[in-house]
Amino acid sequence: MIRDDKRVPVPPNDDDAAADPADSADSADSELSAMTDPHQDRLMIVRGRDRRRTERTAMPDDVPAQSPANKASEQERAAHVREDAADLRDGLADLREDAVHLREDAATSREQDIGTAETKQAASNDHMATLLQANEGLVVSTIEAHILTEQLQATQAQLEHAKLAAEKANLAKSKFLSSMSHELRTPLNAILGFAQLLEVGSPPPTAAQTVRLQQITQAGWYLLDLINDILDLAVVESGKLSLSLEPVLLIDIMRECEFMIEPQSQQRGIQISFPPFDPAWQVNVDRVRVKQALINLLSNAVKYNRENGTVEVRCSRVSPERIRISIKDSGVGLPPHQLEQLFQPFNRLGQEHGSVEGTGIGLVVTKQLVEQMGGAIGVESAVGVGSEFWIELNVDTMPHLATGNPLPAKCAPQTRENTMLRTLLYVEDNPANLLLVEHIIEDHTQLHMLSARDGNQGIALARTHIPDVILMDINLPGMSGIEALKVLHDDPITAYIPVIALSANAMPCDIEKGLKAGFFNYLTKPIKVSAFMEALDKALACSEQN
């Protein structure tokens, strides 16, 4: 670089004094540099000065002054530079303004971001609190569910225990009733059996004796009815009632019921009518149980009727699937509040102190029997007019022959014209029962009776004498009647002999068990002499065929 103190002086020029374009440009550059970067203010100004000095120093002393054209060009260039500088200043101002706006926007955006972040954080905190609360609730619910599960399991265990206890109680009750029935039926068999023999004995009883005998038999049969009702109620309540549904002609059932209720109605002077109906109607029922239900309703219609009253029994087809049997009496009738209590066990509806005997069990058993056969029962009553009980039974529509009154075995009775001696073996450990049967058959000279006190003795006598018919008690010492029957059936010598069970075990399950074991018939104590002789005749007829 050429130092300032060695520069060649230039003579003053008016044009130079007026305006040096280079100086103007350098001045503008210096100003621009100062405006552009305040921190480099000195440096840029020095650079401008150095530039002028350099340019001026480089000019030889003998260079002639610039021409007007050159000056104009320099001035024009300086003007452009000034314009550029102005533009730059304007641009810098805009940049500053933009920078201010950017800072403001950045501040606003930062505030918004902070606000958004705070909002999100608050929402996140709320969500977290909600989750924590939900989790706490879930934990509580889980604990409560666990507690409820334990309580439910405990309740189920208690129910199961209660169920087992109830089943044991029912079983114990059934065993007790069965045992009690057996113990009551055994003496009743002797009481009623000998009373029946006295009524038909020779010489015949006097009028006074006849009245007394009637009182004995009536009380005995009533006691038997009570025993049967209690047993039936126990069986029905236990749910172990066994029914044998089959197609039966309705007219046969109604004739049997009419025959059975006639003595009771005649005794009280009650007139019973059975209007005719289609004899081809048949119902799907248990023959024994439907008669039990109808006899109970007929008996109530007679017992609770007025003196010389009436009972009307009608059978009608109420639908293609149902037959209704209605029993209408002329009794005192029942008020509505008593109708609601009619089918409650042991509820006699205020008749406890009346003259009519009863237990309040019969209607309950009747309702259960009818409903378990698929039927229905109902009643309509008016005080002072009477009551009408009805049952509806299912019609049997299958194209098969309805059954009549079946025999207990395949052999049909035949009239015997010969008088050959027949042997009857009775296996029984109760002396009164042995004596009763001995007295029953003593007028039948063609019958000879052997007796045994236990099963083993009975089997030995059967193998020795080959009797025509065997009567067998069930509860025997040492060996039961069913076990003795099996031994007899397994022996070819005695296998064909008809064996009749004669037992005080009168529960339906006992009867069913005996018939399945192979007894020719199953009679329960106390016996009716006429029914006993009928069963004995059928067994003797079967023995003849064998």
From TrEMBL:
Reaction catalysed by this chain? ATP + protein L-histidine = ADP + protein N-phospho-L-histidine
Its placement in the membrane is given as: Multi-pass membrane protein
Entry coiled-coil feature ranges: 145-172
Task: Specify where it is mainly localized.
Answer: membrane
Record PTM 4-aspartylphosphate, positions in chain? D473
Q: What are the Histidine kinase domain coordinates in residue numbering?
A: 179-397
- Where do transmembrane segments lie in this chain? none
Mind telling me which PANTHER family this protein's record contains?
OSMOSENSING HISTIDINE PROTEIN KINASE SLN1, TWO-COMPONENT HISTIDINE PROTEIN KINASE
Q: What is this protein called?
A: histidine kinase
The beginning of the lineage is: Bacteria, Pseudomonadati, Pseudomonadota, Betaproteobacteria, Nitrosomonadales
